[in-house]
Amino acid sequence: MRGSVGIISGETGSFDFKFLISDSTAVHRGEYVKAWHEGDGWVLCQVLSIKRFSDKVSIKKSFDEAKKAFEELKKDGKDRKSSDRIVAEATVIGSRDPSGLLRAPKTPFSPGDDVFKADNDLISSVLGLSGNEMYIGLLDGTDIPVHLSVNSLVQKHCSILAKTGSGKSYTAAVLLEELLDRKVPLLILDPHSEYASMKEPASKSADFRKFGVSPKGYGSNVTIYTPANKVINPNADELFRLNGNNLTAKDLTSIFPENFNSTHIGILYESIQKLRAEMETYTLDDIIFEVSNNESKARWNVMSLLEDIRDSDLLSSSPTSLEELMQKGKAAVIDFKGVAPDLQSMIVAQLCSALFEARKMNAIPPGMLVVEEAHNFAPERGFSKTASSEVLRTIASEGRKFGLGMLVISQRPARIDKNVLSQCGTQIIMKVTNPNDLKSISKGLEGVNSFVEDELMRLPPGVAMLVSNDIERPVLIDVRVRKSKHGGESVNVLKSAQTSSPAPAKRAPGPVSQPPASSAPVQAEGSAEAGSPPPKRQPSRQPDRQPKAEGGGLFKKIFGSEK
Ligand SMILES: Nc1ncnc2c1ncn2[C@@H]1O[C@H](COP(=O)(O)OP(=O)(O)OP(=O)(O)O)[C@@H](O)[C@H]1O
Questions:
Q1: ipTM score of the complex?
Q2: Please, what are the domains in the chain?
Q3: What is the pLDDT of residue 309?
Q4: Cβ neighbours of residue 210 under 8 Å, at least 6 residues apart?
Q5: Ligand 1: does its nearest atom lie under 6 Å from the Cβ of 164?
Q6: Whose CA is nearest to atom 25 of ligand 1?
Q7: Is the CB of 479 under 6 A from ligand 1?
Q8: Residue 301 CA to ligand 1 centre (angstroms)
Q9: Is the dihedral of CA 418, 422, 423, 427 positive or negative?
Q10: Could you report the per-residue pLDDT of 104-139, keeping only the tens digit for each?
């Protein structure tokens, strides 16, 4: 029949069948085809594998026999290949019934019936690729656009998993552009300074025509915050600061738990109790003063630790507010450049706890938290322990009730907390080759078989497997080109080695700006409730400045260099 690519052959079922094809280029692995079913009409199917057999040049023959058979075919002027059998294996996806539900046939397909290439409308409607808002790319090998739903992506979380250099942050930025275009507030935890480039439009390329998008910069929508300072991170727009007022002993010791022993905690506790009895609002300087009055010799160590925390400038009486960070149509990027891993984790713990609490109280709008390098912030038990694990687990399991979504990005799926990963309703998986990572991905995905694992090992950059509640089956997508500039380019080592070194950058004097004070500061855990900040005031007492036990050690630990 015209347009037929093959004939259903041999034993058939209602879930799969094989079909013979005459031309090996007629269909390819992964392609969508359709077959007529007497009960269900046109049914969408997908080619799982294609195999080619030759009875004349068979592996059951010896090398000499096979060679002879081949030579004879050539002598007779016959094309050796014309006698080959090419057999494709198809899996049945189904068809939409009049009420829009996906149905799978209940009786086998008929041997001898033709198989055709599936048309775009059938593929799109059966798989459920259209009808949603977020345009993320084209179904691989076709020009069919793939859309995801904002609600389902944000409420039910999303993960992007792939080995390094496979396009995770590129794909994440595509999702973030779509969310920003729809005014969803974004809070991005960015350990490698990859998202600042979203401010600028991408340079024009042929891909823009292919995907039907145009370059766009998000300059006025993206703000870069640094927990360090503007000398360490000159690209930052604002300083990120945690609330330093009315801190409890628990708040302070949670910053670096391993540095405070029980004697230190006792001194802190006693000093803070005294302050609370006397003052409505106290600062870190007040605590240091009170500790200096303690009679224990251990006070010098406690003071030194507290002075290091104070000197890091991370705690402030004018903290960064959550309302400032979570605004409709805006992305706040916490750029961790120059911040040591321990401190990153502590900041994520404090910030995300405050974020979750504020969202529960409806003090900020619903939005998305983006966690890059998630294996470092929410590691699987047994790999490592971090301050941020618990709150990220809580957001993963309870965030959807409060409209706080998580986009989890990692190159080591096997090392992320399974409680976090298993909550992601949308999974975007790019090339993965590590056997442990492959195993952990396929364990967490429904309906994923060894075919999918093989596929994941061979994906080219920019192609992703998408598993989503919105889409009936895992599909391969060609992720659309970014509208904004990509910031995760690899360093060209050879080029860099062969060009002359730039002059060292001049040091800027101190922090350049202070973040504005506002009504919902990011509170250190356990301190006053988010949404009602303590009034700002100058420290009432100045502690005696004693020589530090190890001058500036913690500051170096935090930021890796002097201010
Ligand atoms: N959809 C795409 N279209 C075009 N190019 C892409 C696409 N995805 C990725 N790339 C290219 O692949 C390169 C690597 O992508 P990306 O930086 O996102 O990888 P990554 O997985 O985040 O890497 P890392 O783990 O090192 O951060 C990019 O420089 C980009 O040019």
A1: 0.96
A2: 4-127 (no CATH), 134-240+320-489 (3.40.50.300), 249-312 (no CATH)
A3: 82
A4: 138, 481
A5: yes
A6: 164
A7: yes
A8: 46
A9: positive
A10: 999 999 999 999 999 999 999 999 998 789 999 999
